[in-house]
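Justification of computing resources. Each target in the renewal requires a structure prediction run like the one illustrated here; the chain below, 1006 residues long, is used simply to show the kind of job we budget for.
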Amino acid sequence: MASGSLLVVAAAGYGKTTALEAACADGQTAYVTASDLLGGAAVGGTVGHVAVDDACRLDPPRQVRLARLLAAFPGHVRVSVASRHPLDPAAVAELPGPVTERGPADLALTPDALFRVLREEHGLADADLAYHVHHLTAGWPALTHLAGDVLRRGAGRHDLLPALVEAATTWVREEVLAGLPAWLLDLVADLDPITEPLCAAVMAATSDGPEWTPGELRPLARTGLLVANGLGAPRLVPVLRAVLLRDRHLRTAAEGLPGRLRTAAAWYQRHGYAVAAARAFQGAGDAGACAALVESGGDGMLAAGGAAEVVRLIDELPATARTPRVRLIRADALRMAGRALESVQAFTPLLVDAAETGHWTAGLVWRAAMLPYMRGDFRAALDLLDRAPEPPAVPTADDASVLACRATTLHLLGESDAAAATAARALSAAGTAGDDRARAFAHIAAAMIAIGVRREEHLAEALAAAERAGDVVQQARVLANQADCLLRAARYPQALRASARAVRTAEAGAPPGVLVTALHNAGEALTRLGRYEEATLHCERSIQISHRAGLRRTAPGLYGLGEINRQLGRPEQSRVAFEEAIELARGHREPQVLVPALAGLARLLADGGDVPAALAAAAEAEQAAPPGLAAVALVAAGWVALAGGDADQARGRAADAVCAARASRHADALAEALELSAVAGADVEAARAALREAETIWERAGAPPAADRIRVLLGRLPGADGPQRWAAKTAARRLVALGVPAVDGAGLVPADAAPVRVRVLGRFEVYVGGQPVPLPAWRSRQARTLLKILIARRGRPVPRAELCELLWPDDEPRRTGHRLSVLLSVVRTVLDPTRLRPADHYLRADLAGVSFDLDRVALDVDGLLRDAAHGLRLAREGEPDRAREILTEMDAAYHGDPFAEDPYEDWADGLREEARAVWLRGLRELAQLCRRCADLDQAATILVRLLVADPFDEPAHRSLVEVLLAAGRHGEAQRAYDRWAGAMRSIDAPVPSRAVLRVRAAAQQA
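Resulting structure tokens:
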């Protein structure tokens, strides 16, 4: 009997066939359709795996026959079966066991994977847009690619769904919905969420419908039509639901629909789905019931994450149903949905009415104040909160919320004492009001002011209250704060779990500002864990959400990008991000971002040799740092002092930073302060002890890159033993694999040990893992040309349109975009054939264009330029022997002009001229060095080589004649003179006087 079966069940377009074909790539798998296998198709005798596709096309008896046929294969043969619909249970029972089933959840793209698909195959680099596509498609691969095509043709975020429905309708009808019961599709199209008890209730109230049978929804879930929404409740894939509703609208309104929706609304209301109940009442035409639900339960709807839906519901109500209370709920819903400008417009008449009548209510004040608070304008928020009436003897939930909002605002304005006193009042008021949402709000405010264990206790209380209230908005805020606590305590795996949960919760309906914070926290945790590509994605998404929602909260994401690029050795990208983050944080008075960004910039500038600018940034960081961030600023100041040659000041800053980090209980800052003290210290054993303590902190924190950096430093210390040196070497390899190029300014591996080496001097060649890439691996000449162009641009982004024009000058642009995506995929595969690294490790494709990260590879022309500059500098500084050695190596490395096989391509001219000019300058200097040390034969050889490359270099001609005469090689000197004179005549330049031969000969005789 065969050795078990894999059953893959999912609707069309989920990638079942692709998965089976991938399994056939090893050459030992037989791929066959179910019909062909039943028809007697032969299967080779040496196969170890039989992959059967399209089992769904068989009726149940033939499915059983297929299963029995598969069960008869020898015991070593593995069996895989793919089907669009669940197989008949009798057939599954006949399959060789054990049977493992994989379904849509295993095949669907994650949001991160979907982003990579849109970026690499469709040229779409908007991370948040990718998450929106995931929301609409649930990661269904075919729909994802269709969305990419629709977006590339010009659809925007807001019109994506109708455009996608238009493009997908025919395929969905014919490939997905065909064969499914029409009455079931008609039923579920109107329900969200969808449960078995709800469907049973609706069908029981339908006089002419079929009787509901338990399990009717199971096939929809197993094939991927029914998926979980953000809160875990089942729903139809949104694109699929929109297609169903469009089809029904084109036919006619469903008979009995109002009655069904009223039944659903009543069921939703009984079971706590307030938004769904209001939606159903509205669909049934009962605007009064919908308005009453919003009036009485609007706050709960918003707290449950229904802001966008509440706005839609209210906007569709008749004007007579929009009471002041409903208008207030709408204004707050707009804020929570991220529609800041519309929220301002909605709040304005309410605030004007309050100002004219003098009737300021607590409910209006705190909700309106959250709008400038969300945008970082804390002073404007406080001005609004000042208008709130004094709480009564028995405060309400709104009174407690005013106090909680005031406490957090005062804290962010730096008024710590007033903030602490107000937070205490908020806790008392929330307790008296007995409202869990207000209690959660108050505990969050208290946690922002507290430190250590007390802060953790407040957050735990806040989370418990928010969960009791079903308030996902407050849950997201609490989780984001808990993640921040874990980050400061250097507990990174736990911080990532908390921040990931915060992101998921915020996506379910929290205001965009909460999602921005959660994404930034997740990005910071991922950075510490060395997952740089994911960290970049989270930071970029936080920036995009902030821009899209009109928030002024881009500084944290920019700081995150700056730090990622600093660690990965990308100084220019890092500096741009840091400087923009600093500018924004200054304007918004955000020391939590300003101080780390200034510290990061100071270290970056110091590493680059700009010590004065680094000193200015470090000084500003120290001045702006509150007590909790003092250690961060002090560490930066210490590194800058060390770069400036003041080791004593660096040691003093390190000692102060250690004290500040321990006082604020920031383990990460303590480890960084210990590292500084070790590098700046003169005592080797003290340095070793400090580094060991830092290593322990990072190991406990779960921060592999930081721990490996410390291991490298330990291995560099004098007296490091064998195990320490081996650990340092292993750590360096891990850091290089992550893309980290250096530790403490020193490179981690020699150039010839780089995973990828590229040779452009003379013949173009690429080496991966030490082996040259064969021509067939490129699959086309254009793939090699693409890489050449990107290298010639020295890492600068090249717009996609320009690349297409260079690669296919005679083709129409609409035909070349997809070809470029294919070439990018080919080049990535060539450079990283095992796909061990992130997709943008070597090639980065974003809105600016396509660029090649030169820091990731060993490029021969880069080495030549560096060696030439180093040799020339040593010659100027009076070290001729070392200069001669380096310039000789440079000359040996010049195998020809860059891209010699493409002599007429304009894109190669810049790099070609630069390399040639630097090489010739190095040769001139090398010849002079050889003359000075009386190595005349070598000087002559070098000058001849120089003149072959540039036959019109008159100083080189003169030097060659002089060297040959000085060496007594008069005949060669005469011939050298003749070549000199001939070269000058050919360009109509003055011919040198023959006296140069006589003068030098006389001098030689004397």
